[in-house]
Design a protein that fits this description.
By secondary structure, this protein is mainly alpha-helical. The chain contains 13 helices and no strands.
Length: 298
């Protein structure tokens, strides 16, 4: 009877060992599963207890390391125990394609700790991620950044009412550009702030008429606001000031595309081809794309 009991116990122990191996193999790699199953096999009873306690402690440690998303945008927050992140090894964009939720979450949260998520495109991707925790963190970060920008804008607006210092006006323009680039700002507010941005850029251009960055930003914003008449006048001024640059032609094409004027767009495309402008790779792509489209009759 004792031999039969021993055989039953050994059979149960082997079944338990196999169950541990299968359970771990489903969540970790094969080596980890073999190691934990080996502990259970060599230490009957105590092995199961050791593996169980280890996994419980690991789970508790993970929960303690959760990040409060409302503090992510606090610039004074000092994060410790930073984990090395090398974008040349794991491109952050590619982490959203990883099926393992724990790996994806770990890479994303490590990136948050090191403030490498300044790229708004990555954050936008994260908001649509299937993992709700990652999506929640991303939305919280974006919302926190928008709130921070709104506070800074209100503070600068108050200062500019008292004295319009040129440096402050330039700073205000930069904050407006950042604010208008946020996807989660409602359309009505974007239009309101967009009109203010155009006025600020016009003021800056009075002091720096040769600043092509201000001119491009102003034209782009006017196209967004559907102020096509003013945008066309600015495109003309821009082309007069920089006849050998590609940017005025491209902005003209963008304007006529928004206005649904293919004939005028094709005309500017031909002018760009015949100009002495040194074309960038982006401009060449535009030429190839729209040149083919016009040849095919759109």
């Amino acid at each position: 009877m004792s031999d039969e009991l021993l055989l039953i116990c050994m059979g149960c122990h082997l079944l338990l060992t196999g169950a541990v191996y299968l359970a771990v193999a489903m969540k970790a790699d094969r080596r980890q599963a073999l190691a934990e199953a080996g502990i259970v096999l060599l230490l009957p009873g105590a092995g199961v207890l050791a593996v169980g306690i280890t996994r419980l402690l690991y789970s508790l440690r993970f929960m303690q390391n959760r990040i409060d998303p409302h503090k992510l945008m606090n610039r004074n927050n000092v994060f410790t125990n930073l984990i090395s992140y090398d974008e040349n090894v794991i491109p952050l964009h590619d982490t959203f394609l990883v099926e393992d939720v724990q790996i994806k979450r770990k890479v994303f949260l490590d990136a948050v700790k090191q403030n490498v998520l300044d790229n708004p495109k990555v954050l936008r991707m994260a908001t649509y991620d299937t993992d709700r925790e990652i999506a929640y963190y991303a939305v919280s970060m974006i919302s926190g950044h928008i709130e921070e920008l709104e506070g800074q804008l209100a503070e600068l607006e108050s200062e500019l009412r008292q004295e319009a210092v040129p440096e402050k006006v330039r700073e205000y323009a930069g904050l407006l550009a950042d604010y208008l680039s946020q996807d989660f700002v409602d359309a009505l507010t974007k239009k309101e702030k967009g009109r203010i941005y155009v006025e600020v850029l016009a003021r800056l251009l009075q002091e720096e008429p040769e600043n092509d960055e201000y001119m491009q930003a102003k034209i782009n914003q006017e196209i967004f606001l559907e102020d096509y008449g003013e945008a066309e006048r600015d495109c003309h001024s821009f082309q007069q000031a920089f006849p050998d640059r590609e940017e005025p032609y491209i902005l003209y094409m963008k304007l006529y595309h928004a206005m649904r004027q293919p004939e005028l767009m094709e005309k500017k495309l031909a002018e760009l081809k015949g100009s002495r402008a040194r074309l960038s790779p982006d401009a060449l792509r535009i030429l190839r794309y729209w040149g083919g489209a016009f040849r095919e009759g759109l």
